Amino acid sequence: MKQSSFFSEINGNFGFGCMRLPMKGGKVDYDEFVRMADAFTEAGFNYFDTAHGYIGGQSETAIRDCVAGRYDRSKFLLTNKLTDPYFRSQEDIRPFFENQLSWCGVDYFDFYLMHAQDRNNYQKFKRCRAYETAYHLKEEGLIRHFGLSFHDKAEVLDQILLEHPEVEVVQIQFNYLDYEDASVEARKVYEVCEKYKKPVLVMEPVKGGSLVKLPEDADQILRDLGGGSNASYAVRFAGSFPNIAVVLSGMSDMSQMKDNISAMKDFEPLSETEMEAVKKVCEIFKGLNLIPCTSCRYCIEESECPKAIRIPDLFAALNAHEAFHNWNTAYYYDNVVTGKEYGKASDCIRCGKCEKVCPQHLNIRELLPKVAAAFE
User: What is the CA radius of gyration of the chain?
Assistant: First the structure.
């Protein structure tokens, strides 16, 4: 872990991802978030991560009120990001960035990332000179470290890092299920970071919760180890590689925070026996042919689905149906994720807005009919 002295300012190897904060009545539950943030910092960690699209902007303002407004600025590190939908030209970037500082209640960001880079939006970032603009902000002291987050194939990251040697850090999706996955290429992407000597920030170590509630036979494999929770094996897997600086986890309640702290405070890489166990879990998942959605909710919060279809929830229902074969997935589909307020899978008009913002590059228009076939 964290072999570069460059990241000595990061306490530990665990970060608080603020994309899935506790909610109450459609708003961030400040009381629970404060308890979680306090537990996190009291355990010795200091790295928080946000972006404007998280929870419709509430993530940033919750950090302002529950973190920046309560802790001395030198006691925590904060990462924010420049996200595609929020600028159209180079001239839009600085005003948006200054708003982000205000929304977060800080006067600088410790890390600022070009968000969710892939072969398509990277071209827009190039046209708008986003990398150069962000680097100027660094030279002004408004950004301490400059980097990118990434969702594409290894060859695309290789191109970006070749063209932008000023990048200091790369955030990637990295978990044991995606490690050898041909669509995510987590291992190959990680190896590109090693090639360019870029420290790695890990997102989605539990794949949006998919590695917590496992199919029964996969769950039994990890229980037989006699150790921690399913989530603990996932976050420890992500932290077991030498170029990993921080493993981020998006947590929604105190129980998740406590579980992650117990796994990461006195960190131990996975043993050979544990590595073999997670490989067996991967083999079981491969046989299920599940939809690799991480529930990032970009398709909902950034694409404005004209039929108000809660795509991640529909995919979660289908995955649960395939993995567990229990009756309540149909009830969940009919009464929770669709119903009067939200669209059914069959309501899709195939506009493609959701696919343009999906970090996993899912063929959503082809997958929704499968959901409809299962539940409707």
Answer: 20
| Percentages (nearest 5) of helix, strand, coil residues in the chain | 50, 15, 40
- What's residue 326's pLDDT? 59
- What SS3 state is found at 154? helix
What are the tokens at 1?
């872990």
What does the alpha-carbon distance between residue 202 and residue 225 come to, in Å, rounded to a whole number?
25
- Burial letters for 79-89: b for 16+ Cβ neighbours within 10 Å, e otherwise? bbbbbbbbbee
> If pLDDT is split at 50, 70 and 90, which confidence band does 339 have?
low
Distance of CA 202 to the CA centre of its chain: 8
Instruction: List, in order, residues 6 or more apart from 88 with CB less than 8 Å away.
Output: 128
How many other CB atoms are there within 10 angstroms of residue 95's CB atom? Answer: 10
Rounded (5°) CA angle 127-298-342: 140
Q: Report pLDDT digits (tens) over 152-202.
A: 889 999 999 999 999 999 999 999 998 998 778 999 999 999 999 999 999
